[in-house]
Design a protein that fits this description.
Oligomer: single chain
Number of strands: 20
Shape: globular
Low-confidence stretches: none
Largest sheet: 7 strands, mixed
Strand order of the largest sheet: 12-13-14-11-10-16-17
Helix content: 40-55%
Mean pLDDT: 98
Strand content: 15-25%
Number of domains: 2
Length: 453
């Protein structure tokens, strides 16, 4: 298993694949430890989770550099990711007692209530784009809820996976309650089929989600899937264009545009099309692309050359189909998986930029005449992860966000972002189930009815 530095194209590190026997041993060990861990008082679990937040913060610089070297994230964004992970740990440490409290219902019996009990060992299949956050947002509520965990991380961020393993032990959790295994994707099925795996959570592609759900379905094991997205951002005629451009630029280019909830389709009212498009072009073009270890870099390389080339192919096919290239869209010379901020205008149905997820710094501009057309375009996608509406009429924006956009999350006058306090997930081909908040924590708990007569 190899990790290649996407900035230089050089080998960063090599890792030994975990054997099938060792994987089974890790799962069985985690299961044994989980039986003890579930009986550990909440106060003790909370102390360890707070300690994990402290360990993350103490290692912030090392972790930011590691992410830069493994998947190209600028160090400034890497530090922010570490901070968010620590926030999630503290959130669940503080809120678990309330989330896990028994819920009593009067039925005429001596007692009747719902008790939230852990399922067991949860298998997490995680992606490379937020190599710490994606894991911690599963791990913190899972461990706080009394579960154990096995992590199969993306192969190009194996160093990050091992670091998480080490930090969990350093924080005082039982050694082996959570464990990273280094295996390729084709071996995920054998782990799902292990009798001591209780459920599976996956963040990744639609294809990966279908494969995991298929295997888990045969095994009658619960899954939570957070898959791709092609988030629509509606720019209405009365939008604050300065605000919209700032939010849309960041929402499209953060993490090099490699985010399921990145802004991807900009659906703009014809009356503000030129103003918005010109300002967005100037804003995106001003982003500084370069070495992710440089403090001034705002956009680093994409995570892998093959991903960069797939994105460029989507751009070229969209142009062939009639889209116009406003900025970017040219492969840079030299080493690394760099791709410049790119804007395609005149995007319409039938073009890759209209229908496919563009997982990189490419913005698709689509025009509309009235509200109904804007909503129709926004929902004309197999995905349904996030979305945003920009308007000075807050009642109108909230109505569209709440009732009309087919998505798991919709913001008004802001770019879409996850928050430990709010549930996160999608509909349609963007998956099912929720992470974060009390809803996410309860996904991997047994809502057990208890009646005493």
């Amino acid at each position: 298993m190899h990790s290649v530095n996407p900035t230089t194209g050089e080998l960063f590190a090599s890792f030994t694949e975990t054997s099938s026997g060792s994987v089974a041993t890790h799962i069985e060990t985690a299961s044994l430890l989980q039986q003890e861990w579930m009986l550990t008082p909440l106060s003790a679990r909370s102390e360890r989770l707070i300690r994990l937040a402290e360990v993350l913060e103490a290692r912030s610089e090392v972790l930011a550099v590691l992410m830069a070297n493994e998947m190209g994230k600028p160090v400034t964004q890497g530090r922010a990711e570490v901070d968010k992970c620590a926030w999630a740990c503290r959130y669940y440490a503080d809120e678990a007692e309330m989330i896990l409290a028994d819920e009593h219902t009067a039925t005429g019996r001596t007692a009747s209530y719902v008790a939230y009990r852990p399922l067991g060992v949860i298998l997490a299949v995680m992606p490379w784009n937020f190599p710490l956050w994606q894991v911690i947002r599963f791990l913190a509520p899972a461990l706080m809820g009394g579960n154990g965990g096995i992590l199969k991380h993306a192969s190009n961020v194996t160093g990050c996976a091992i670091a998480i393993d080490e930090m969990v032990v350093e924080a005082g959790f039982p050694d082996g309650l959570f464990r990273t295994v280094i295996v390729p994707s084709h071996r995920v099925a054998e782990m799902i089929e292990h009798p001591n795996i209780a459920a599976v959570t996956l963040t990744g592609s639609e294809a990966a989600g279908r494969a995991v759900a298929s295997t888990a379905g045969r095994e009658l094991k619960k899954t939570v899937l957070e898959l791709g997205g092609s988030d629509p951002y509606l720019i209405l005629h009365d939008a604050d264009i300065d605000l919209a451009v700032r939010a849309c630029t960041f929402g499209r280019l953060v993490n090099g545009g490699q985010s399921c909830i990145a802004a991807k389709r900009f659906i703009v009212h014809r009356s503000v099309l030129d103003d918005f498009t010109n300002r967005l072009a100037a804003s995106m073009d001003a982003y500084r692309m370069g070495d992710p270890l440089d403090e001034g870099t705002q956009i680093g390389p994409m995570a892998r050359i093959d991903l960069r080339d797939e994105l460029h192919d989507q751009v070229e096919r969209s142009i062939t189909a009639g889209a116009k290239l406003l900025i970017g869209g040219i492969l840079p010379e030299g080493p690394g998986a760099f791709y410049p901020p790119t804007i395609l205008t005149g995007v319409t149905q039938g073009m890759p930029a209209y229908h496919e997820e563009t997982f990189g710094p490419v913005a698709a501009i689509i025009t509309f005449e009235d509200e109904e057309e804007a909503i129709e375009i926004a929902n004309d996608s197999k995905f349904g992860l996030g979305g945003a509406v920009f308007t000075r009429d807050l009642d109108r924006g909230e109505r569209i966000a709440r009732d009309r956009i087919e998505a798991g999350t919709c913001f008004v006058n802001a770019f879409v972002a996850s928050d430990p306090r709010l549930p996160f997930g999608g509909v349609k081909a963007s998956g099912y189930g929720r992470e974060l908040s009390h809803i996410g924590m309860r996904e991997f708990l047994n809502a057990k009815t208890v009646v005493v007569n």
